[in-house]
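We store sequence, tokenised fold; for instance:
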Amino acid sequence: MSDLASLTISKARELLSAGEVSALELTEYYLGRIESSRSLNTFCFTATELALEKAKSCDKLMSSNDRGKLCGIPLAVKDIFCTRSLPTQAASKILEGFVPPYESTVTERLWKENAVLLGKLNMDEFAMGSSNETSVYGPAINPWQDPNEATPLSPGGSSGGSAAAVAADLCLAALGTDTGGSIRQPAAFNGVVGIKPTYGRCSRWGIIAFASSLDQAGPITKTVRDSAILLEIISGHDKKDSTSVRCKVPNFEAALNGDIRGKKIGIPKEYRIDDTPADIIKLWEIGINQLRDSGAEIVDISLPHTKYSLPTYYVLAPAEASSNLARYDGVKYGYRATLKDGEGINELYKRTRSEGFGDEVKRRIMVGTYVLSAGFYEAYYQKALKVRSLIKRDFREVFSKGVSAILTPTTPSPAFALGSKKTESPVEMYLNDIFTVPANLAGLPAVSIPTGITDKGLPLGLQIIGPAWEEANVLNIAHRLEKDSNFSIKPKQWWTS
């Protein structure tokens, strides 16, 4: 059964259909791997009984024509997706004990295709973080190791648990969310594939909100093909989500022909920033040459307002967070502070929020409240909205000139040691999002794929950004680069108990 660990979704479907492995065998195998890998802290809740029950029902359906596209496939989802009758905390103390009475739209679409839910995955609290260190469960651990460091590596964030679980073969794939790079950065840190679709491609209903104009769900997988399979299933209009766009969903898997001849690939000069490690620059140049050798035309482009992306994001995202998180007060659900004699509702609100939210979440709520307050709204929030429009315009102008996609590094560094970015200035951590944030501000699809390693053996990723609604094109270019780079390295298994 050891070879089951290396399965992809596409390969597992073949084995299940041929009867070479049962859904129950597959599920039991992955549940066993999860149990023996607790040291990675990737799972915050394991749905053992539910998973086994679902697997048994999948085995009965396997010969049926309507068994679903994911029948018997063991998956896991980030703790930010509401799952009916299963704990959902967004890795926050303030949602302690919360069990949703409803299911998020994207997870419901997975279960309708008879996927098997293994459990919920660790994350940064309310998706606010780039290292998974803000989680109430403690940080998830990257399965990759730096041979020169005794301290474990960060899996990235906020979907760090999702990426680490896929990299460690604890599930066949996972769902994450991406607000400023929270799928792509951990995907790069863990040597897996992660895609953020166009804003509005996937429903946000039932996803615990961070920043409503930026949040998007997306898959984290072992291959581009698997990402294409999952993305098609979770995409589509949802009447329960006003930001969900009524747009035809292509067959993303069928688009993976690898033919990129004649495609114009843009290389933005603004992404060539000082102090970028030589390993990343080298990887980028290799990727450029591989695409050129496969028939693409490489062109230099400019995105002049890219340099304003981070400050713009860290005005808009906290502003939206301060509004979205105002609902958590300890009255209807979640954590409730204990009051002293004589204290009333105001004290309940204050103490619940003070005790229930972590430091990073409180920091962003305060920043967001500040930029929305009287006297500062025009100076900060309104100005950030204008800059966001300019960033969107930069991308539109580039794509209007025939550029099919843009190739950049995913992150400015490989995975870093846990605790190494904890300084007096949170900007040290925020800089990890420098290459990913622009795509969120512009609402564009972007995918990160692993294409190489550092001289210390840590994975690195390249990012492909495309025009809105062009996920098929983005995935096909990624598929081509995946084949050309032939990245097949796995972390050495040191974490099993």
User: Anything to note?
Assistant: The chain has two domains: 2-262+404-485, 307-384. The chain has a mean pLDDT of 96.
